[in-house]
Amino acid sequence: MELEEKLSAIEKLEPRNDWLTIALEKAIAPLYEEIEAAPEEYRDDFWGTVEIEKVLTPEKLKRYERIRMLLGRRYWQLCRRQEKIRQTLTIDECERMIIS
After folding, report:
1. Deepest of 24, 72, 73, 92, by most Cβ within 10 A of its Cβ?
2. What is the domain count for the chain?
3. Up-side HSE of residue 67: CA atoms within 13 Å toward CB?
């Protein structure tokens, strides 16, 4: 695999380019909006952190936690795949990346 192919493969494995990550982020976006729109009485400290257990229904909370878990797993999976490609880079390829 050539350097350009390796770099392209790494780029494709970025979360912003991954179709599954994008789908999960779209699924969680309405829940984030609902959390952000929470009234002041649901904010628990100086920083205004929302107690999501008070804002979301049990079903929505379960969905929120599940999507967050899946996103975390996916990020970790993409990171491991990128690392495998990075480990195949030769010293010459690394030097070419630094120079360019």
Report:
1. 24
2. 1
3. 19
Long-range contacts: 8-11, Cβ < 8 Å, 24+? 9/85, 10/82, 10/85, 10/86
Amino acid at 76: W
The two structure tokens encoding residue 1: 């695999």
Q: What is the pLDDT of residues 3-48, one digit of tens each?
A: 999 999 999 999 999 999 999 999 999 999 999 888 877 777 777 7
Q: What residue numbers bound the domain in which 41 lies?
A: 3-99
CA dihedral in degrees (81, 84, 85, 89; nearest 10)?
160
- Give pTM, 2 decimals: 0.81
